[in-house]
Batch of 3 targets.
Target 1
Amino acid sequence: MPAPLNEFKAALGAKEQVIGLWLGLTAPYTAELCAQVGFDWLLIDAEHSPNDVNAILSQLQAIKGYKSSPVVRPPSDDRIMLKKLLDIGVQSFLVPMVENAEQAREIVRSLHYPPKGVRGVGAGLARASHFNAITDYLQTAGDEICLTVQVETASAVANLPEILQVDGIDGVFVGPADLAADMGYLGRPGEPEVQEVVVNALKTIIAAGKPAGILTPDQTLARQYLDLGASFVAVGSDISTITAGLRGLHGAFFNGK
């Protein structure tokens, strides 16, 4: 029996466009609520949310069985953290702050067993192998790992052509917020100068035959990115959606106070 099929990776490989939602509330109950709505993928964020390994595990368990595919953004490219996430069953990763091809190659190595990589062998203890019930997990796990990397600085964008050539990169995600800050437009990712770089980066990714991804709560921008050919687009977060709903409800009864 092989490792479980990674439907997110299969969708990207088939050039499908998939719509996602960011999860930052660290709660399995919220994750399940978002999963039952039917987004194609849900990003469990451990970079800017207080998600530790146990919190991520509980959300993976809550999402399992729904249509939505889980993707995890670790706090960094730390090899030990990636190993822990692999063993609890994470198959799809969005690794932040990737600056160059050498860093990307090292991340690929972290996610794969030897000889392709350096992932430690502990499948007998791992949820990923169904606690060793998947008898050929070691031989098939790598086929179902999906690695997307995030470029979010001017230097990363400059190095994008080389990053795109790295074997084992399944997609590249553009981070407008950090890119804007790096360009001198902190908190202003919608500035024309920033958007020009964002769009050119997306075009470069698409022209290289790789899936391109991005997050924006702006529905007009999201549709423009999809029309451009972006493959995986996140259109909001659990936090922003709940906050907007609460503020709207509050305003309806408190006269906007």
Target 2
Amino acid sequence: MFKKLIGLSFSLLMTTTLPAQKTYPVKDFFKNPEKTRFQISPNGDMLSYLAPWNNRMNIHVAPINGTNPVRITSLTDRDISGYFWKNNTSIIYVRDFGGDENFHLFLASSDGKTEKDLTPFKDVRVSITDQLEDFPNEVLIEMNKDNPEVFDVYRMNITTGEMKIVAKNPGNISGWITDHNGQIRAATTTDGVQTGLMVREKESDEFKTIITTDFRESASPLFFTFDNKQLYAASNIGRDKQAIVLLDIKTGKEVNTLFEDEEVDVSDLNYSRKRRVLTSVGIEKDKYEYFFLDKETEAMYTRLQEELKGYRVAITSNNRDEDKFLIRTYSDRSLGAYYFYDKTTDKLTKLHDLSPWINENDMCYMQSIKYEARDGKIIHGYLTLPNNVKEAKNLPVIINPHGGPWARDSWGWNPEIQFLANRGYAVLQMNFRGSTGYGKAFWESSFKQWGKTCKMTLLMV
């Protein structure tokens, strides 16, 4: 399989009895957190989160200090998987019925007193196009109300229930992009082979296709510039690694390249809605990391990382004034915790540990590795060794390739990997050729090679 495991000596012999370590029940690795998916209200006064009720994850709301929580939903057949604050007194979520996948849009008051199905249509599926954060009583949704095979976009008033169609899907549109005024200005199309990017100057205009690509290349729109005149995109057109670029919406040509990396694709670009500045680029190499474009954002992350040493830090929610934030930590050995950070007072307060029943010191480190396959290609991956092993020799090993296959493994908490390591196994995960994130050539090296070169990379240990 490989010539050399770079930076680590590792013998794959399944003969040695392993030293004892604390064994956790299987359920401890896979059960739901007692509270998760925390969000903050637009005014920053309230928290929401998902917590079990009758064995299903339902929405709860509480003041920032977490006292006297109120359950505002009562689902017993299905978990609520996603929701968001629409305004300071209302939360939006979607749910289906008995697993029929005909999702409806629901509105629940934050005091738990009212709940309403906003799309009570039979055999119709709803999804969110844009939360319209700057419009407290409106939301953009997609529905197949007129044709079960096609999803059109509607602008809905959540108070009155009034809807009007704002974008008609001719049948080939797979995604819609709004500008910063909540107007639908771009769309992606597909015919099953080629993908197109269409843009229009204003919502009343006809769309014009500015880019067409085959499946090997893409220019994925991210969001409009703050003046709504150009478009940020993640593109690998004419290059191996996907980069963040600025597109001219009249011609589809690249105005300039904002960020690119020699080793991996780049697709995550973040910004401040209030200050209207780009803040950071997210890059996933061995671990996920940020490249900062804004000194204020960099200073806050540096301050948080200093207090939360040993964990990766992510901002998961903030209020409209962007002075109150919810922080999520995680690592390879822990699901982490949620914190509330008040930027004005510079105070960080822990809200909830996500898996307090597991002592992270009993869990195992996920080490980033790379090795050279026998044809010379460098393969990246992760190796997790059981605790109390002084030397990585003569261990039973589980080779754990990711699914997809066009996906990749990532560093972080993985309950399956930790369970196996807790039972005494070393676990090797590899981002074999064809895994995404490492550029076009690495991805294309898997074409017509499943069961051939790819099999060699995976199984010839």
Target 3
Amino acid sequence: MTGHGESTRESDSLSTVVEVRSVNNRHLKLVFRAEETLANLEAEVEKVLRETVKRGSIVVTFKSKRKKPVQGSASQTLIDGNLLRNYLCQIREAIGMAGSGEILAAACLQLPGVVLTGNLAGSISLEEEWPQWEATLREALHHFQAMRLREGAAMARELMALHDAIHAEALAISERAPEVVKQHRERLRSRLESAFSQSGLERNVEPHEILRETALLAERLDISEETVRLNSHLDQFKRFVEREESPGRKFDFLIQEMLRETNTIGSKASDLDVAHRVVEIKGLLERIRELVQNVE
């Protein structure tokens, strides 16, 4: 389900902005966008996200602005010694494996995060800053969920309209089923009488012969079990819309079952009117399938 939420918080030294956006996805997928110094917060962000979101491709963006440098003035330039030493260890190991090469100091200073200037200079403590980021994130998620709830209410109304349309088609099929058997019985009688007449036999079709063939035909055309199961699935579908929490995956399975019953009805009934209604139901189910991809 699509959604958007944003929040801003201020402290004496830091302004935090968190934006949460989502697009449809059958699974939960987090895309975390932030400056390099905040990259280690991704695990904490995902932990908070999973408390409220179950499905969707979620993009969480962190933006910060420091009101004053953590150390020194805004023009201060510092080198992250720990990070530089880590880079050098890896470079020396790679050179040793290659068997030759030299380390250029100027090139090392160009590596990401080695040189901190301006408002990034100094040692940034993510543990100290995380509570503010977390509060900003939770507030953005609150706005995000509120938007999704509004969209979900509109989607629920549309799903129930599609449910009612399928129910009406299923009811019409159930009412049509006895007439289908009757028409096939009359067609069988007519064909038998025509066959006797063309062969020159002067006798009418015996009632018990029609009854026996009609019984066999009625058994082949019987769709009562399929219509009962289809209506049962529709009742369950309605319960999911009205009361179930996070029914997205259940909807996927239920649609498959309704489609299976609908196909069986179409193949067994052998009637033009029923076939038209089966096509209509399958079209409605396809619309539902597209919608439930947005349902958490």
